[in-house]
Every structure is written in structure tokens, then in C-alpha cells.
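Summary for the lay section of the report: proteins are chains of building blocks that fold into shapes. Here we show the chain for Cell division protein ZapD and then a coded description of the shape we predicted for it.
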Amino acid sequence: MTDLTYEQPLNEKIRSYLRLEYLSEQLTQNLTHDYQHQCFYPLFSLCELNERCDYRSDVIKDIDKQLHLLSAWRSSPQANAQQIDELIASMMGMRESLQTPGRLGSELKQDRFLQALRQRFNMPGACCNFDLPQLHFWLGQPFEQRCHDYEQWIASFKPLLHTVSQLLKLTRDTAEFSSVTANAGFYQGVSDVPLSLIRVKVDTAQGCYPTISGHRNRYAIHFVDFETQKHTDKSIDFQLSACR
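The coded shape description reads as follows.
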């Protein structure tokens, strides 16, 4: 039995955070596995996303919101004051790390090697050694040296990526998984409070996957049979978490 977890953001902010988290996981894997030239795809994707939008302002607003909630919770007699204080200190440190001048990753635009690669990476089959001899040379360096270069390239993004990861953890922790059934492959839910993320955990043995849609207070889950790629009529047991 293998459970897979699917997530659906219900607002644009969480959608962006999930994209950043996904790229962060790929960047981390590239520091432990030698994926050759493929390591540049998440790096360039991160650069492009960050050029479209400076996420720091939204992230700092979220940190301030969490700090306000934590301060309120600390006054509760049931609260673990020490744990809350540690979390507050951590959030304050993350907030400070984000308050740097200039746009994140702006120094990479001055790197002639990276810019030469980035201009060609969107072209099909453009990573041949006759197209990019400088890439061929770099890939010929020891993996340890390439990891050192890679660490330097992603260093300025780390405060943002780490903070986004922690904010998503707090979001996921707002709700636990509960067992529910989708009759005839369909489930619909409503909430009295605005939701930001729907999480579905389903056993692959059931041979289907969920497609999730919704917004704030209402969401719907349709299960699709993988073999036929059509909506299933079977009753599907799964785990559901509706996060605030």
C-alpha cells in the first residue's frame, strides 16, 4: 500500500509558495545528486519567478501575521510558552534575513557563464557541447567544485525559500487528516472559515488520482481513473485535510 498526497492551493499566494517549495526541493537534491546540466532548470526557473515578483513583501506580511497569532496564543493558560517563544524568535530571525537591499538573485545577472546558459536553455536540444562549450567545461569539473559553485548561486535565495517552507508547514499544521469517502468518485466540502490549501491522501492501489478545485469556503474533489483517464464511478476512501 502506497499513499500519495496531493495538494491544491485555494489562493494565489499559496500557489506561489508551493512553486517555490518545489524548486527549493530540487535545488537541495542537486547538491547531493549529480544531475549534470539538469541542475540549471530549477535555478533558472527560480530566477524567472523572482524577476516577475519580489515575494519578500508577501512573506514578511505573513510573518507579521504569524507573530501576531503567536503572541495571542502565548497568553492562553494551555499554551506552551517556551515553545511559542522559540517559534517567535525563529520567525523574527527569518524576518530579519529577508530585509536585504536589492532584488534577490540580482547578482546572478552579472554572471556571464549563467547568462550564456540561460539564453539557450529554453531552446530544444541546445545543451550540446558545440552549442555551449563553457557548460561542457564546467561539467568536467569535480562534483565537489560544482556543488560549491551551486551553493554560491542559490545562497541569496535561501532566506526566502527557508521562510516559505516554514510558513507552509504552519499552514499544513492548521488541519489534521481525516478519513472520508467520495461516493461515485465525487466529494464536495464547505467551510465556515476561509481555506488556503486542500490536501488529499489516497492509496495508489485504488488506481485513481484526484482533481481538486475550489476557492476559500468551498471545494470539490473528482477522482479520475488513471487507465481510462475518465471520472471514476467507484466509491473512493481517502484522507482529507482542509487547511486555513
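Put simply, here is one thing we learned. The longest helix spans residues 12-30.
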